């Protein structure tokens, strides 16, 4: 004699056991404000007791929502993204959303493929970075996407919401601080200028030189550095010249390890033979000997802002103009810079 199949608990079973109408159970499941606290708690207790599980697929077909959001970032290996992702995920989770995280590898074809996949999976909204803010295919896909999109630290696409940090002002602060210490040969290490952060950092670096009346030596600007090996190689090349830089501004999110390694390999001492500023405050910057002067902004706040904007777009559509939030950047002075 075969085993009896366990019957699936339905919403009607919950309603009968809790002595409420089916519509009341539905309102509790959808967190409707019209249900009293006493009734809500009774229904929730009954759901747990009976082991009721709502059919997510059927629910999404009725509501046209899947209660899923996606986040696509450049690289999982960059620690700076962790606090951003953690804050965003917590915000979505508290609103009842499942959070999907993907890596773009900073590649256009991956970004376009992910956008297509997110659309096919009917996610309710997307937060993402862009490898190239000027690429027409990417701009078109983001502008005309089937779901709302919030850009992470990207500003050139004006048709969608964005949350970013004021990297231009931060770069100007860092460079002016070095110039005020007498440095005139300041190396700048940045990522790809096709993305807002690097482009803005070059602008801030240039503005600082202009404000001090110091000409910019373009040879000292090294861009498209997207790995520790690349920053090490470029820094080593700069330090090997007869007129080496007296200071290094490692401006990218994850560019500090490369120059620290290159300085050590060259037999130099940070804070004595050469000054260094990191464009991203981190455990490495704080715990290094000496501690590294660094730029800081609230990445958790950036994640919360992006998640809240996306939730609002999911609820209310694109009725209002695109929103742009830019967080301030501050300079944390430590022991890695000295006057010359």
Automatic annotation (TrEMBL):
Pfam families given in the database record: LacI, Peripla_BP_3
UniProt entry keywords in alphabetical sequence: DNA-binding, Transcription, Transcription regulation
Domain HTH lacI-type as annotated: residue spans: 9-63
UniProt key word Transcription: yes
InterPro entries: HTH_LacI, LacI/GalR-like_sensor, Lambda_DNA-bd_dom_sf, Peripla_BP_I
GO molecular function, one term: DNA-binding transcription factor activity
Domain of life: Bacteria
Transmembrane segments: none
Keyword Mitochondrion: no
Name of the featured protein: LacI family DNA-binding transcriptional regulator
Organism: Bradyrhizobium frederickii
